[in-house]
Each structure stands twice: as C-alpha cells, then as structure tokens.
Amino acid sequence: MEKLIKKYNVVNDELKIETRYLFSKKFLVLISGIVISVILSLLFLIGSTIGYYDNEVDKCFKSVEQCESIIVKLSDSLDNLDNDLSISMINHQSGKCLINPIQEKPTKESVYNLAVECGAWYPDIIVAQCLIESNVGTSNIYKKTNNMFGMKIVSKNKMTTQSGNHNSYGTYKNWKLSVIDRVLMDRRYFSKKPSRKEYEEKLLGSYSETGDYLAKVNLIVNNLNFD
C-alpha cells in the first residue's frame, strides 16, 4: 500500500511539473502574440504616418511648382508689357521725328536721351556704337544716309524707320530715326531684355568684323559720364 501511495505521489508531482511547464509555455506564446500584435500595430501606425507626411510633402512640392509656374507667367507678362511699352514709346518718338524737322546735330547726350526715351536696354552701348560706326559723325555713309550705325536694309516684314536704301545700307530722313531703328534692332534680336553679357555677345556676332570691337565699345562706355 505504501509503495502505491509513493508511486502516486511521484506521478502526481510529475503531472504538476508538466502542467506548470505547459502553462508557462502557453503564457509565453500568449505574451509573444501580444508583443507581435503591438509591434505590428506600431509599424502600421508608423507606415500610416509616413504615408500621410509623404502626401503632405507631395502637396508642398506641387504647391511650389504651381508658384514657380505663376512666377514664370508673371515674368513673361512683364516682359511682354515692357516690349509693348517700348514699342509705344518708339512709335511716339518716330511720329515726332517725322512731323517735326530735325535741325540740331546729334551729340552724345542727345543720342543717349533719345535711346532712353525709346526704352533702350543699354543706351550707353548705343552711344558708343554711334561714335564708332559714324566715325563721330564724319563717315560718308552717315553723311549720305543719316545712318549712324551702319545698319543694313531691314526686310519689309519687320518694323523699321528706314525710308530707303543706299548701297545696301538703310537710309533715314534724319539721325533720330536712325537711333530709333537701332533700338528696334534690339527688339528684333531679343524677345525680352538680355543680360549685358548676352547683349555684348550678340553685338560681336552682328557688328564686329575685328576681334577688338567690343573692347572699343567698352572703352568709350567707361569714359561716358551720364547721370
């Protein structure tokens, strides 16, 4: 009888140990499941947050792009307005020059002021070219044509103040119309105001037959004194 009791006790103890082990194992599995669920929930939350901010960032970029597009359109509108105003001033000055006889001789100051009134982008360069191309008002071309800039004949489909031609050079009724046409030439070459460097490079391509042309222009410009 005692042997049976001892054997029962041993078996009972083993069952308790087995039960505790299984309970511990189930508990660990349960805790692991909870931890995994929490981690997955956090990952989902983080992913949702990142997705939200990604969308917000995309919206910001789109807003910036829209602003840039508006700025470009405004800039183009201002350029067009500048051209329209300049053409209006040129037309006004051309009308005055055609109606009123021109008696005064050109000076650096009068050429500069007329170029400014016509909306010239770089009137100091125009004055320098005037002095070079007309040889300070002594060249034969200038004397015969009032052409102060050695301007060639402009095609009929382009706006110009030329009234005729002489040996492939345009002729003008007076020197002021020559200055006005020089300003118009800039509008024929550029759709909007160029940088001074771009402007000078274009001069080299359209006027210069020698490599020192731009140096001559800048030398005169540097010695001009206009307020």
Features:
227 residues; mainly alpha; Lysozyme; 2 domains; two-stranded antiparallel ribbon; 7 helices; 2 strands; 3% strand; rod-shaped
What would you say this structure looks like, in words?
It is a single chain. This protein is mostly helical and 227 residues long. The chain folds into 2 domains: 1-80; 101-223, Lysozyme. It is 71% helix and 3% strand. It has 7 helices and 2 strands; from the N terminus they run H-H-H-H-E-E-H-H-H. It has a two-stranded antiparallel ribbon with strand order 1-2. Strand 1 and strand 2 form a beta hairpin. Helix 1 packs antiparallel against helix 5 and helix 3 crosses helix 7 (213-223). The longest helix has 98 residues, at 2-99. The protein is rod-shaped and about 110 Å long. The N and C termini lie far apart (130 Å). Mean pLDDT is 75; it is low at 4-12 and 70-81.
Number of helices: 7
| Helicity level | over 70%
Number of strands: 2
CATH architecture of the largest domain: Orthogonal Bundle
Provide the fold topology.
Elements: H1 2-99, H2 108-117, H3 123-133, H4 140-145, E1 164-166, E2 169-171, H5 175-189, H6 196-206, H7 213-223
Antiparallel strand pairs: 1-2
Helix pairs in contact: 1-5, 2-3, 3-7
